[in-house]
Amino acid sequence: MDLPFVVTTLTRRGLLTPGRPIRVASQLNALRRWGWSLAGELRQAAARDPDRTAVVDEHGTELTYRELLDRAERMARSLRAGFGVQTGDRIGVLCRNHHGLIETIVAATVLGVDAVLVNTGLSAAQLATVTEEQRLRVLVHDDEFAERVVALPAELPRVDERAREELVAGALPGDLHPPERDGRIIVLTSGTTGAPKGARRPTPNGFGPLVSIIDRIPLHTRDRVMIAAPIFHTWGFAALQVCFALRATIVLHRRFDPAATLAALVTHRCDALFAVPVMVQRLMEVPPPDPRPALKVVAVSGSALPGGLATRFMDVYGDVLYNLYGSTEVSWASIAGPAELRAAPTTAGRPPHGTRVRILDATGQPVPDGQVGRIFVGNEMLFEGYTSGGARESRDGLLDTGDLGRLTADGLLFVDGRADDMIVSGGENVFPSEVENLLAQLPQVREVAVIGVPDEEYGQRLAAFLALHPGETLDPDAVREYVRHYLARFSVPRDVVFVKYLPRNATGKVLTRELRRYYA
């Protein structure tokens, strides 16, 4: 990335504002020694603004950057001394958004340990599979998940909220040095095709990734930012990284509630909100507060914006909406700002500086403007592969997103959907085939098909079509509860439709288009 662009962007966003020489020197030294990992980002923020509030929890807990760093280091020393955790190990983090989650992730990166961010919607069975396949050394979890983790192997140490506080309070003194290798952040993708796949996120190697985002999304140093998107998601974690880099004050709630979120935005005088589209949809379902939050940025990612939502939201809260299209594997591909969303509410925007987007056909050749093809992306934050050893297809340094889309002649990207049968519901990736296989095990079921159907709130949702054996009956709520028991909550079909038979073609393949016509 060219130096003039970096310097110009950092200056515009306030990162090159002069400060006390000793603090600036300490800040730069932290980055020199610890690099651009989350541990390095927190250290540079604590060196430059030690007494600035770093995190505000929903119950009023406030921690300065100095205090947050101290607690994370205490956690790191206790993990090392109490559990023998060392560089190269992996720990699981099953937590909602609060300061303990941040402390645990930072503690892992301080030690050079991989932090596996566990989706809080996973079932007990999926969690057991993740624990085994990711070879977790320790699992840190919120109290609300106590029943879900009880069936995990007895030899796996589990740290609940009380134990976590004891680890922080009772940490033994000791020195911490930069690890021999950076700890990786491992994000679990999908979570609905058997075992979720672990995607290794790279560590930034400079200002490039930051300036690519803040050039297009106008966030500034010392902003006050509410992260509503789950931090176990790539988007929520990216928000945390950006906030540390900007030395922002971060506001967190464990669960998203639209009225409580709006109240917090006003109470804490937030400049920005990071969310997923379904959250924006829900904000529109409650009356806006008086006064309304003085937001400058509402940044969303994770799924497509439902049609018309962008315009409706900006009509109420101003032209502050920014939509980032990307994935765990490619990080970001494009960003749509308010002007672009006003002109074309369903656009994914344009690639930011340093990012390449190409639309290719099945043979890897570029398609003409306006024609649908596979979306390939290249930037400096492409993922490092799955923990299972797998990878995604790449061509000329560009990675396959798995999505289909098209580019207009003036460079706007539009995403048309997944290349396979996966749907995205409320920011979660859902594969119908796994739900089909599960429902087929019910003795009453003769045949079943599960498809994605449009949903104004979540973008898409699952609809299950079941044909039963003669004389058998099933209750729709019982079907949903059965799926909920084995799979993540976002895999539960909202619609359960009983049919006499499934439409098939001559080769026996279910005609999903007929099911959609029947549904409509």
From TrEMBL:
Keywords: Ligase. Residues 434-509 form the AMP-binding enzyme C-terminal domain. Pfam families: AMP-binding (PF00501), AMP-binding_C (PF13193). Residues 43-386 form the AMP-dependent synthetase/ligase domain. PANTHER family: ACYL-COA SYNTHETASE, MEDIUM-CHAIN ACYL-COA LIGASE ACSF2, MITOCHONDRIAL. Belongs to the ATP-dependent AMP-binding enzyme family. This is AMP-binding protein.
